[in-house]
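can u do me a favor
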């Protein structure tokens, strides 16, 4: 079973270059393979013409106890905030984590909140109010 999250990660061209350098420096071949697998297993991956990168995972166990996730989160912590934007939305309504300052990113990735209705609104299920 487990707890699942939705993840979005945007790296600027500079942020992606920093990620590549850090990944090349990983001496543990098994860990490097796990990190590469994590990135390649994203549900979507995009590269913009300016070199920015986007990964999204729609339903993933995102636990810092997993070595590859711990490594990526550590990498983001030392990266300048303007070079990435990270969103994690957990299963609980109040479980949202945002990191990085690349708000105006090429992909326009962001967090949206809205109110929705599961039934069509009509006069049948409306209550008359007085003004």
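np, heres the sequence
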């Amino acid at each position: 079973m487990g707890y699942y999250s939705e993840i979005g990660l945007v790296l600027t061209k500079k942020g992606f270059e920093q990620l590549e350098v850090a990944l090349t420096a990983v001496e543990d071949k098994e860990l490097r393979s796990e990190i590469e697998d994590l990135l390649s297993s994203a549900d979507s991956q995009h590269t913009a013409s300016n070199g920015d990168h986007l990964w999204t995972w729609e339903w993933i166990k995102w636990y810092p106890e997993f070595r590859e996730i711990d490594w990526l989160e550590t990498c983001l912590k030392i990266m300048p905030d303007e070079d990435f934007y990270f969103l994690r939305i957990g299963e609980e309504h109040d479980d949202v984590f945002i990191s990085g300052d690349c708000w105006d990113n090429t992909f326009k990735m962001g967090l949206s909140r809205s109110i929705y209705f599961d039934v069509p609104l009509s006069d049948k299920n409306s209550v008359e109010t007085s003004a």
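Helices lie at 13-24, 29-40, 67-78. hope that helps!!
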